[in-house]
Input
Amino acid sequence: MNEQTVIETQDLTKVYGEQVAVGHLTLKIYHGEIFGFLGPNGAGKTTTLLMLLGLSEPTSGKAWVCGFDPTREPLKVKRVVGYLPENVGFYDDMNAFQNLQFIGRLNGIPDDVSLPKIEEVLNLVNLNPEPKKKVGEFSRGMRQRLGIAEVLLKDPQVVFLDEPTLGLDPDGSHQMLELIQSLSRDKKITVFFSSHLLDQVQKISTRIGIMLKGTMVAVGRIEDLVKEKLGLEEGRYTLEELYMKYFKEGQS
Amino acid sequence: MKGIFTICRKELADHFSSTRFILLFYLILMVSLVTAFMVGTGLRDELKDVAKPTFVFLLLFTSSGKLFSLIQFIAIFGPLLGIVLGFDSVNRERSARTLSKLASQPIYRDYIINGKFLAGLIIIVIMLLAIVLMISGLGLLLIGVVPGPEDIWRLFIYLVISVFYIGFWLGISILFSVAFRSMATSALASIACWIFFSFFVALGASVVSDAIAPVDQTAASQNPELLIHHEQVRKVISLVSPMTLYSEATTIILDPLRKTTQSLLLMGPFERLSISRFQNPLPLSESIYIVFPHLISLIAITLVCFAISYAVFMRQEIRST
Output
């Protein structure tokens, strides 16, 4: 395996009963990339993420994350991968610090190490809540940022973000995007994120993948895909046109 | 292993700060006060006809006074304690969307259940210990009898059995909290189970034994074997209920004068003789020997229902939505 490859799948398939959620997915994601994962609701994006994390067992096919097989060695994968689920939940009766400390302990980080670390990640996501404030009282934007802080606490090599900007106000999602970019730029963390907000994906992704009904219909740099699919030159397109083209083809 | 203790610690903190726990605490305080007072005041009358009373201290727990004894109370309502502690343990995390986060941390998935079970057990131990100590203390004040080493050993064994008994119900409620997504459903299912095993099995046992081994008056008078067979069937069926197992085991342990769990009808001649002629207490080792099968069964069913929750939880896919 190429050492630059961080995530690799081969014919990864998940079948629920009769329905194929993810079919023969073969994909490579390289170190330090921001990979935007697109597709309509129910296309199998979250299922793919779950399989890569070892939370769901693939029906067939193989996957490697940082060189580990998520089905065989889920713990090793979970140690290096941070996952921010869609609509992340917290223990609402604890404050931000306690929530992070709990996650730190689960990751085997001793309290004296996690203490400064928590300060650091909270600063990084620009979240400085009053110590007494319970997470239950947080706004959606704050919760989402706390989620990122939690993911960063364990110094991940890869982060999976499921709809990280969903339901955030324009300012909040702008901050979130900058944060994601800085992860890739400053910390060399590989980011794998799924989203419906195409303009945002276009803004920050190095490569994208479009998934329709469990099949990956396109993978590559946006410019290359546009050139190939729409025959247009750089700078004269939006990702939306490209996406809709694939989407309509998939429908027919 | 560390992950289990982390989760256990958090669960304990949750329990201690919950309103539920405070309510339970007051309930237990009330029960201990009432039982100790009732038994303490009625004990003198009870011992009037006994020539040489032994193990008076244990009577604090077994004597039913005017209403009920402590061991009856625990046998009937102890399960509720276990259910209250466990019925929402997993599905609460699911509905708060914290479960998928928890599962994506580098811990084995069974640590989540183990940690929760362990925390529940610790709470149970604390509560039972509190009850027993409180009754002992009040009893000392009221009747002024000091427990001997054997009393203490018997009480200790009683505590262990009770922890397993309530732990079984904790396991059942955790199992339902894994299987059902709604907390109300899992609470109801656990309570239904409790009612079934605690009240209906005993009832069903006599119905079924009537059907399998019918006894009619004329036949029984010619052939007493029929009666015995009937009684045996009833007995075996009623042992399906953990409550029967528990009550039999604890009465033997706490009442050294009891020498068998069999009812009068099923006793052998020697057992009958020893009960009517020799009013001597059994040594502790013999009491344990009698209830050993009960103990093993209690532990076994606790483990079985725990194993089922494992199997269910391991196969479940954890999604955030």
Observations:
- The interface with chain B takes residues 46, 50, 53, 55-56, 75-76, 78-79, 81, 83, 85-93, 102-103, 105-108, 150, 154, 162 of chain A (CB under 8 Å).
